């Protein structure tokens, strides 16, 4: 008869083996925030029995608090290269139900994205098998590509301005012309290799 071998498993081993499972059960909210340097994923874990709060930005842990006796409140952190202020608000909505709200620079995510669409233009394109996300910040005329601010050269032309830069070996420029309508303002168009790129909606 084969002898029965006793197996002892250390607490850490059990924790690591089931850690991912525990992590998923407390995940209560996921948001995607489009900033000039890219789209950032924010995940929030809230243990309603332990009061645990964990914030991840792009998969990296930013905040971890264990055993919080107050289950409502807020957590503030920064997102992206520009260190944009983000706050997760935790509000009780009766019984043991909670509502989680993400605020960016003091505005709800929806309000922030609406105001951002007025101050930035975004284009998503593929060139030679490489994907590019180009963002123009209209107030500063800074151009970002795939998370990096890039070198540009501005030039006045007959009907407006052109901001020149390159993506790999492709010549690009953003043309800014007046719409002629007061409420529309200036229209920005991305031209790559003499081809107009449609604006992306984020």
UniProtKB/TrEMBL annotation:
It is found in: Cytoplasm. One of its GO terms (cellular component) is cytoplasm. InterPro entries: FAIM1, FAIM1_dom_sf. Its main location: cytoplasm. The keyword Cytoplasm applies. The keyword Cytoplasm applies. GO terms for biological process: apoptotic process; negative regulation of extrinsic apoptotic signaling pathway via death domain receptors. Keywords: Apoptosis, Cytoplasm. Belongs to the FAIM1 family. Plays a role as an inducible effector molecule that mediates Fas resistance produced by surface Ig engagement in B cells. This is Fas apoptotic inhibitory molecule 1. It comes from Rhinopomastus cyanomelas. The lineage of its organism: Eukaryota, Metazoa, Chordata, Craniata, Vertebrata. The gene is Faim.
